[in-house]
Amino acid sequence: MKMPKQQLHDFDPNGVGQANGQLFGLPFTPDTAGVVIVPVPWDVTVSYQEGTAKGPKAILEASPQLDFFDPKIPQAWNIGIGMEAIDRKWEKRSKGLRKKSKRYIQWLEAGSLESERAEMEVLQADINEKCGFLFDWVKATTAFHLEKGKLVGILGGDHSTPLGLMHALAERNTDFGILQIDAHMDLRDAYEGFDYSHASIMFNALKIPQISKLVQVGIRDYCETEAQLAADSQGRVEVFYDRELATAQFQGQIWQKSCEKIIKALPDKVYISFDIDGLDPKLCPGTGTPVPGGMEFEQAMYLIEQVAASGRKIIGFDLCEVAPRKKDDWDANVGARVLYRMANLAYKSHDRKFTKTLG
What confidence tens digit (pLDDT) does each residue in 267-306 have? Predict the structure, then answer.
């Protein structure tokens, strides 16, 4: 996989970050990259704070400030990460539908007045239909890149956005598992009446027969129905609750041992779904539903690093729920670094040769 000589010659990985319109300021496009990121600016069904639709743009703008050197992955930048242009039509549709979903959610929270039911059912049906259109687009777009032999990741948007990629991967893999880093289980059936709710992503993922295992890590905010679904799954869903992981550490168990248990539960092929609120909220204060507790940055990166080191192949990934704040770009800076490390580790897990290094 080679870049045009002039572009490689002009790029200095040790120099000033380039605001060239490409993710991280790298000299790669989706055509020339080994890893393709598909941004999905969408947060129609969020149930608390909105703003995750602005995450892809904020991460793109913050990403050139990142330094590329990784002592564990020589010439990591040369793997080639390229991002599709942010499709403004989806951002516009999300904004319009968000107004409708807020109206619908307010109706639910007010007690679902019978006098407004007919109007709300129309809104609900419209939202579900349009979310279905987004699902179709994500599936088709990611399938296009997968057919070209690319490793593909989704950059949300809310956590409903990667479902299309999961389906595209299911058409190309007979068996794989999901490693979900998250504060929430997301196992609600059509939460608030939305078929593609951000709180239903893993409930919907479990409808895919090729997904043999769902391993959830960092969970600390969930309902009894979700916990019962996991308990009744006959091992298909395995949960490593944040409280239990913290208790083990308080009692002297090192993080490496916890990671070994988590990874042992995963099959040979792994999809990583990273909701930023899986981290301590000091690292993602703008996210839609921040929850006390969670992992430190390097703690989460170590887990993914160990997945790659275990010989398992990371076949796809997503980063969702990054929401920028007006006062600073902290959330986007953290998100950019999670995305860079995760993309590099996913690529490394395939033992692919890096693109030709800068001569």
Answer: 999 999 999 999 999 999 999 899 999 999 999 999 999 9
Alpha-carbon distance of 355 to 173, in angstroms, equals 25
CA angle 24, 28, 30 (to 5 degrees): 105
Distance CA 344, CA 332 (A): 18
Angle between helices 297-309 and 255-264 (to 10 degrees): 50
Q: Which amino acid is at 138?
A: V
SS3 18: coil
Domains observed in the chain: 26-348 (3.40.800.10)
Number of continuous H segments (helices) and E segments (strands) in the chain: 11, 8
Residue 51 carries which DSSP code?
Answer: -
Contact 44, 129 (CB under 8 A): no
What strand order describes the sheet that includes 269-275?
81-83, 35-40, 151-156, 313-320, 269-275, 176-181, 211-219, 237-241
CB 316 within 8 A of CB 211: no
Three-state secondary structure call for residue 49 = coil
pLDDT digits (tens, 9 = 90+) for 137-194: 999 999 999 999 999 999 999 999 999 999 999 999 999 999 999 999 999 998 888 8
Q: Nearest to residue 214, comparing CAs of 247, 255, 166?
A: 166
Q: Which residues contact 318 (CB under 8 A, 6 or more apart)?
A: 153, 154, 155, 156, 161, 162, 165, 272, 273, 274
72 DSSP assignment: T
Sign (positive/negative) of CA torsion 171, 176, 182, 185?
A: positive
DSSP label at residue 184: B
